[in-house]
Write a structure and sequence with these properties.
- By secondary structure, this protein is an alpha+beta fold.
- It folds into two domains: 31-111, Endonuclease I-creI, CATH 3.10.28; 113-260, Endonuclease I-creI, CATH 3.10.28.10.
- It is built from eleven helices and twelve strands.
- A four-stranded antiparallel β-sheet has the order 1-2-4-3. A four-stranded antiparallel β-sheet has the order 5-6-10-7. Strands 8-9 form a two-stranded antiparallel sheet.
- A hairpin with a 4-residue loop joins strand 5 (125-132) and strand 6.
- Helix 3 crosses helix 4.
- The radius of gyration is 26 Å and the shape is elongated.
């Protein structure tokens, strides 16, 4: 555009030159090198932030106006822009900052949670489905993870929401109750809580973004999704052909295990 301006005899003070200078300003790249402010904003974004405007904006929405002013001020410093005024949305206050680069950076940091969750669910997670041996039917399925720290699972639930995955919390066992492990009886010292993903849309999203690297759990998740796509009268026969019940667990039959032994475990996804 500057070349066009010069060919038309327009100098530095011409309108075309001003447009060109504004264009360079619009392409300004914020400094996203590691800093205390950026680390705080990224962590805050995981809890109460989201992308807006086709991912061209960073939006924070809180009920605490003072807290919103603080985090908004940090974003303004990172972008080297003046503080923006917040808007009122019912009981909440909101502020938006236009920045494609920052929006993509924060969204990517959120998606990297998938690697964390893949490890967590490999360690503590499970896949299960509802089966009625009397009715010979298979109902819905769920993905869950158990832990004795309720506050930790509350955090996991909040972080799953960042990835668009809905879940709920429940308690299954109380401290002092008996449990059997490898033929021996033990007494639980703590209550046992679960974070459970049960909605089909969230289960599909879990499978797409997180999944399992553990071979057995990955296979059970794929089979559960496959059964979910079958007609009701086919699911039960298909399940019994591949799984057998041992105690309260459904495990792959030996013949099916031999067939699938050479298959690769589910690989971590790239974003």
């Amino acid at each position: 555009m500057e070349r066009t301006g010069r060919s038309l005899g327009n100098g530095e003070g011409s309108p075309l030159s001003k447009v060109s200078r504004n264009r360079r300003v619009w392409r300004y790249q914020p400094d996203l090198s590691p800093s205390a402010n950026l680390a705080y904003v990224a962590g805050f974004y995981l809890g109460d932030g989201r992308a807006a405007g086709n991912e061209n904006k960073v939006r924070f929405q809180l009920s605490d106006r003072v807290q919103l002013q603080y985090v908004g001020g940090l974003v303004a410093r990172i972008l080297e822009r003046p503080d923006k005024h917040f808007t009122r949305n019912g009981p909440f206050y909101a502020v938006d900052y236009d920045s494609v680069v920052l929006s993509k950076f924060l969204s990517k940091s959120a998606l990297q949670l998938a690697d964390y969750f893949r490890g967590f669910f490999d360690a503590e997670g499970y896949v299960t489905w509802r089966v009625s041996m009397v009715r010979k039917s298979v109902g819905g399925f769920c993905v869950g993870a158990a832990n004795t720290e309720m506050e930790y699972l509350h955090l996991v639930k909040r972080m799953l929401e960042v990835l668009g995955i809905e879940s709920f919390l429940r308690r299954t066992n109380e401290a002092g109750t008996k449990m059997r492990i490898r033929g021996r009886t033990w007494i639980r010292r703590h209550d046992v809580y679960h974070v459970v993903i049960g909605r089909r849309a969230s289960l599909d999203r879990f499978h797409l973004l997180i999944g399992f690297h553990n071979r057995v759990k990955a296979q059970k998740l794929r089979d559960a999704i496959r059964m979910g796509n079958m007609v009701a009268n086919v699911r039960f026969a298909w399940l019994l052909a591949r799984y057998e019940k041992k105690g309260r667990r459904w495990v792959v039959t030996e013949s099916e295990r031999v067939v699938s032994r050479g298959s690769e475990p589910q690989r971590p996804r790239r974003f």
